[in-house]
Amino acid sequence: MFMASSLEYVQFVVEQLSELENISYRKMFGEYVVYYNGKVIGGVYDNRFLVKITKSGKKLCENFEEQIPYEGAKPMLFVSELDDKILLKNLLEQTWQELPFPKKRK
Description:
By secondary structure, the chain is of the alpha+beta class. The chain has 3 helices and 6 strands, in the order αββββαββα. A 6-stranded antiparallel β-sheet has the order 1-2-3-4-6-5. It is globular. About 25% of the residues are buried.
């Protein structure tokens, strides 16, 4: 059984993403969804920072492990190395380029 993520860890992750503007997060079901420029880019699940998988993100971080955020979800890239702010910036920018904008709700 996994534990919910701590707000302290989420705030640490967001601080490591300080090279980017427009980073936000929202608590959802005890975990945290991370947004970059209006798109869901990943999240913090069980105190693990996971980023959606894209071709360019996978190429940039080919040594990153894929993990499932929660049962029934698609695998995501597990970002275990949070010290390299430039790598994080590049990963999120490249991932953002490939992700669609969320559909407008009616």
